[in-house]
């Protein structure tokens, strides 16, 4: 799809030995991860209970937990409750909580698991990265970059409308304004 958007010859596999396959292979995985990190895509949300590491952090937090590797954690969205404080440093989650349940964005390696609008967003972002190496056209690269913004916005909007809206917790102080 990305090669078609650039106006280049299609490939049958990332293992094809031609220039287009080599470029697709170079950019594909990082582009998928990049687009998955941009939004909490429903198809990429995963939950996990983490085990505490034996050593506590040197300072600032009481506990540290290793982030999941299978499926690989691309971005932590939240812990059990929205008010739990945490910090990601490298591949470790730091918190003051004695237990750690997280909701996170996982790396998806099987493209058949992607939502159709997510596929379009990934293809358009990949096309943006392929445009200059294949065509040497800065104009096409800029056009695809603008198109990516539109495709991403539409995909995010549609994805966000699936499911029950989460209620926002408010305090009596905030409610007193009304």
Briefly say what this structure is.
With 178 residues, the chain is an alpha+beta fold.
> How far from one another are the termini?
51 Å
Low-confidence stretches: none
Residue-averaged pLDDT: 92
Question: Largest sheet, order of strands side by side?
Answer: 1-6-3
Global morphology: globular
* Largest pleated sheet: 3 strands, antiparallel
β-strand percent reads 15-25%
Alpha-beta classification = alpha+beta
Cα gyration radius (Å): 20 Å
Please report the number of helical segments.
5
List the secondary-structure elements in sequence, H or E.
HHEEEEEEHHH
Task: Give a written overview of the molecule.
- The protein is built from five helices and six strands.
- With 178 residues, it is an alpha+beta fold.
- The chain has two domains: 84 residues, no CATH class; 63 residues, no CATH class.
- α2 packs across α3 and α3 runs antiparallel to α4.
- The longest helix is centred in the last third of the chain and has 23 residues.
